[in-house]
Amino acid sequence: MEQDLDIPRKPKFRDAVNAVVREREAEISRGSSQCSFEFEDGERDAIIRLFDRLGKGGQTPEDLAKFCPRSPRIFRAFCSISTG
Fold first, then answer.
1. Among residues 19, 39, 15, which one has the least CA distance to residue 27?
2. Domains in the chain, number
3. Is 10 part of any domain?
4. How much of the chain exceeds pLDDT 90, in percent?
5. How much is the mean pLDDT over the chain?
6. Residue 21 lies in a domain
7. Per the domain annotation, does 1 fall within a domain?
């Protein structure tokens, strides 16, 4: 069951977050919490740009969503682990 998350106005990975983009999989972790997902061919560069922007912060969810090639649900998951 999907639920709406309270997304910060300008989400940013916390210092303790480690984000790794592999050939066809991305992983986000913080302490003992982690999530990973596979992505399609051609999406890797967009994931890298999204993670880079989340690392720097200062952009709105709408700005960041432009760099998320998949469903908004995955984007909300990024925000939840990176700011929660």
1. 19
2. 1
3. no
4. 19
5. 77
6. yes
7. no
pLDDT tens digits along 52-76? 888 998 888 778 777 665 555 555 5
d(CA 56, CA 54): 5
Kindly report, residue by residue over 39-55, the tens digit of the pLDDT: 888 888 888 888 888 89
Q: Is 61 in contact with 11 (CB distance < 8 Å)?
A: yes
Distances (CA, A) of 84 to 18, 50, 68: 14, 18, 19
Confirm whether 33 is domain-assigned.
yes
Based on the number of CB atoms within 10 Å of its own CB, is 16 exposed (0-12), middle (13-18) or buried (19 or more)? exposed
How many percent of the chain have pLDDT more than 70?
A: 69
Give the C-alpha separation, 19 to 1, whole Å.
26
Residue 48 is part of which domain span?
17-83
Inter-CA distances, 10 with 29, 30, 57, 70, 83, Å:
19, 19, 7, 20, 10
> For residues 50 and 68, is the Cβ–Cβ distance under 8 A?
yes
